[in-house]
Design brief:
By secondary structure, this protein is an alpha/beta fold. The chain has 19 helices and 18 strands.
């Protein structure tokens, strides 16, 4: 089985969010199962290549009259082979792959990712390496949505398209479609046309042989008007081809071996968590106290994640004896509001704007709870990290959060199945309720230990997810040969 995994980011080469974690870990797990999986992604200007990581020039393509180079490298830890699509629209630009320093999307994103799609198709059809033909092309999110569309007329390979977040669709006007030089056969309601515009993500949904989401519950949710973003009807139409496969977490997230922590700990030996909490409080400038709950958050500062509600709740803490620490970047209004809250309440609130992988690990290791009040959440990775680290997840019951966190109730505390605090709805009142619920749990040490240990006993490794994807690849390959 050979697979070309097309993605716009992959850790540790480039990361803005969970897609990068998936794109780094899933191919590595598939490789361990014997799959010949290779990545293809853009060669961004600030791609984090290690000093000992070499690149090799494989081919030069002509993409609509533009020269595009295909480079080759290898993932430093997993050994997974990587094709890098090198063109000035990627390589001559620093910073976020999708948006400029003003927080707005790059004006030429449709041109960039249409070019990337055509280059990926060239790899998939043997134009770059005539000796390698993947059985399956696995595309991810809107940036790769044109790949299944462009491959639709080819006999091989089969295609899988994964929806990591349906809210980001890559919708552009008709003049953009015309400028991109795409086949006119795609401009139809059962193609990429979307209410007079074009939609990259619709290309993947319509033309892929199989569609996956990153949790079973999200696969159900996106077939409803509330979560479908105008594509729920199409997704219901393609429901026979749609499946939810829960994401996993990599071995780099493990409190027993995590080099970012000051002290290792495990489900059976939790003492090290207190040392990590004290070190984190010191690092963030918070009072070092073991008698108050430290609630943490790491993520993109956007409305989807409920950060606006968290900010409102922080202004309404009143006399609550809690601490809050946040690491993230996103919309400037939220960055500024969080900074203002930290300045106004430095004894309880610490904020770091940006992304720091080591600090993200220390927040999971030192936090008592991780708050994640997402309005919607396709899978979520931070609640999985939190479960692994015994950092009690506080979540809204949507998407993958509902699939992975068992609410602490009198019944689940009695039978030992509780792993977190779960909100049935998400608003400021619910967030304050969840803080109070966790504070009450924190003040019952025996119950807190039981919830932590149950959480840490959960198994969400990439091995199980990779086996599910391999079964899917084999199923469509076998169906194609019949």
């Amino acid at each position: 089985m050979s697979v070309l995994f097309a993605t716009s980011e992959a850790y540790p080469l480039i990361k803005t969010g969970g897609l990068a974690d998936v794109s780094g870990a899933l191919p590595a797990a598939l490789t361990e199962l014997g799959v010949d999986v290779r990545l293809v992604l853009p060669r961004y200007g600030d791609l984090a290549l290690r000093e000992d990581q070499t690149t090799e020039h494989l081919a030069r393509l002509d993409v609509l009259g533009q020269p595009v180079d295909i480079l080759h490298t290898v993932m430093p830890d997993s050994g997974v082979r990587v094709y890098l699509v090198d063109h000035p629209t990627f390589s001559a630009r620093q910073g976020n792959p999708y948006m400029g320093p003003d927080g707005n999307s790059w004006h030429d994103n449709p041109d960039r990712f249409a070019l990337f799609a055509r280059a990926a198709v060239a790899v998939a059809t043997g134009e770059v390496d005539p000796d390698w033909h993947p059985d399956v092309v696995h595309a991810n999110d809107w940036q790769t949505g044109l790949i299944p569309a462009l491959l639709h007329e080819a006999e091989k390979p089969q295609t899988v398209f994964t929806l990591h977040n349906l809210a980001y669709q890559g919708v552009f006007d008709r003049s953009t479609f015309e400028r991109l030089g795409l086949p006119w056969s795609l401009w139809r309601p059962d193609g990429v046309e979307f209410w007079g515009n074009m939609s990259f993500i619709k290309g993947g949904i319509v033309f892929a042989d199989r569609i996956t989401t990153v949790s079973p519950n999200y696969a159900r949710e996106i077939q409803t008007a509330e979560f479908g973003y105008g594509l729920d009807g199409l997704l219901r139409h393609r429901s026979d081809a749609l499946v939810g496969i829960l994401n996993g977490i990599g071995s780099d997230w493990d409190p027993e071996t995590d080099p970012a922590l000051v002290a290792p700990y495990s489900r059976d030996k939790l003492d090290g968590k207190a040392a990590n909490k004290a070190a984190l409080q010191k690092e963030l400038g918070l009072p070092i106290r073991d008698d108050v709950p430290l609630i943490v958050h790491v993520g993109r500062l956007v409305e989807q994640k409920g950060i606006d509600l968290v900010i409102q709740a922080l202004s309404m803490l009143g006399q609550r004896d809690v601490q809050f620490a946040c690491l993230g970047s996103g919309e400037r209004r939220f960055e500024q509001a969080l900074r203002a809250r930290a300045e106004a309440d430095p004894e309880r609130i610490a904020v770091r704007i940006g992304y720091d992988e080591g600090l993200a690990h220390r927040l999971e290791g030192g936090g008592d709870a991780f708050i994640m009040p997402s309005r919607f959440e396709p899978c979520g990775l931070n609640q999985l990290y939190s479960l692994k680290y015994g950092t009690v997840p506080i979540v809204h019951s949507v998407g993958g959060l509902a699939d992975t966190v068992t609410p602490a109730t009198p019944a689940t505390l009695r039978d030992g199945s509780a792993t977190g605090i779960v909100m049935g709805q998400v608003d400021v009142t619910s967030i304050l309720w969840s803080i109070d619920e966790f504070t009450a749990l924190f003040n019952r040490p025996d119950d807190l230990k039981q919830v932590r240990q149950r959480a840490m006993a959960q198994q969400y490794d990439w091995g199980a997810s990779a086996r599910s994807y391999l079964d899917l690849y084999q199923a469509i390959s076998n169906a194609e040969t019949k």
